[in-house]
Design goal:
The chain is mainly α. It has one domain. The chain contains four helices and no strands. Helix 1 runs antiparallel to helix 3 and helix 3 packs antiparallel against helix 4.
């Protein structure tokens, strides 16, 4: 009887794990599609802007006019487009990150509930005189339940660190854009 309970519990746990893995894979594909769409839109904008600038350059007669086309305001606009692009990608990554974190929390909660149910069923079927075994069994599974909380804490830390890394990268890039814009102003002057 115990073996049947164990088999049923393990089968259900494996099915839930497979379902979670499929959901995470779907989220990953959706994120990749969203980022590909952002990249496609950005590429269209770049090509369109390049064509417009090329058409203007061809019509110029004085080389000084070409330098005036690439002033500080143009650099600011280009930087704003890049920052906008990064913000869109960042939004997709954060959304996916939060959904995966939520799935992990849900999977941990489900696993804990399944384990508690399994422990209750297994100890209820224990024969008389096996109290020492039941006590050791409960102690082992209590420790296992605590490891679920450690896994939850670790996954939450990983997602917080991921967001900090993304924020740091965004800040670093935006910090580099401002000096580049200032340099363009100095060159134009």
């Amino acid at each position: 009887m115990f073996q049947n309970t164990l088999n049923t519990t393990l089968t259900a746990a494996q099915a839930k794990s497979l379902e979670s893995a499929q959901t995470i894979a779907t989220l990953t594909v959706q994120s990749a599609e969203a980022i590909a769409e952002i990249n496609y839109d950005a590429a269209k904008e770049v090509v369109s802007a390049a064509q417009a600038q090329s058409a203007k350059l061809i019509q110029l007669k004085d080389p000084k006019e070409a330098l005036q086309m690439f002033d500080a305001e143009t650099a600011k606009e280009a930087a704003a487009h890049v920052v906008g692009y990064q913000n869109k990608v960042n939004k997709v990554l954060r959304k996916n990150s939060k959904e995966v974190a939520s799935l992990i929390d849900s999977a941990i909660d489900d696993s804990q509930a399944d384990l508690k149910k399994f422990i209750k069923e297994a100890t209820a079927q224990a024969p008389a005189g096996s109290e020492a075994f039941v006590s050791a069994f409960n102690t082992t599974f209590d420790a296992m339940l605590k490891s679920f909380e450690q896994a939850r804490a670790t996954s939450q830390d990983a997602f917080v660190n991921f967001e900090k890394t993304v924020d740091s990268a965004m800040s670093s890039f935006q910090g580099q854009v401002a000096p580049a814009t200032k340099s363009r102003k100095q060159i134009a002057a």
